[in-house]
Amino acid sequence: MVRKIKPGQKEEEYVQRGPVVELVYWRDPKKSGIVFGSVLGVLLSLSYFSLISVVAYLSLFVLAGTVAFRIYKNVLQAVQKTSDGHPFKDILDLDLTLPQDKVREVTDLTVSHINGAAVELRRLFLVEDLVDSIKFGVLLWCLTYLGAWFNGMTLVIISFVALFTLPKVYEQNKAQIDQYLDIAKSKFADISSKVRAAIPIGKKLPVEEKKEQ
């Protein structure tokens, strides 16, 4: 939930906070660095090895670490004659059950986005608005070049690196970036309006004309 802005305080101080937001904005550099390095290492491994191999090797690495730590703690307890119990007791006692309300909330949100995407794609492919369909076609044409330059995993890696860099860059240079974005938006809106005025085809009919038909 976004917090309300108090008088005299800046809007950017009230960015919605959450685990993911805290990570991508590097609020705790140690945690963000660990997550960024770990996930990037997995993605780079997937670009060279199969998914099964990466999952198997990672699982073996984790299992070897936990077994070694368990043996070490058992030996230490035997030498010191203590009974601290299982070294992973706190983790074993954690409740990993997914709450049904959260699962239902995520499912409803996902279905809503899928339905919205389906309606929008239908509108674009069936040329409800000619200009929007042309812009969509230009986007698809650009994606063909993007696909020729990069494979899927490379795009995933680039997107992940961008997720951990662009938000922080934007936060630190918000004023300058917003200024250039406003200029670009105004130019794009001007060009789009001129194209719509020059191409009468595909414009939606007024509601009254539709009723008469």
TrEMBL record:
Q: Report the InterPro entries cross-referenced here.
A: Reticulon, RTN1-4
From what organism does this protein derive?
A: Timema tahoe
Recorded hits in PANTHER family, A to Z, give: RETICULON-LIKE PROTEIN
Q: Where in the cell is it found?
A: Endoplasmic reticulum membrane
Q: Name one Pfam family in it.
A: Reticulon
Q: Where are the transmembrane segments?
A: 34-64, 138-166
Q: How does it sit in the membrane?
A: Multi-pass membrane protein
Subcellular location, principal: endoplasmic reticulum
Q: Which domain of life is it from?
A: Eukaryota
GO CC terms in record? axon; endoplasmic reticulum membrane
> Keywords in UniProt for this one?
Endoplasmic reticulum, Membrane, Transmembrane, Transmembrane helix
Give residue ranges for domain Reticulon: 20-213
Q: What is this protein called?
A: Reticulon-like protein
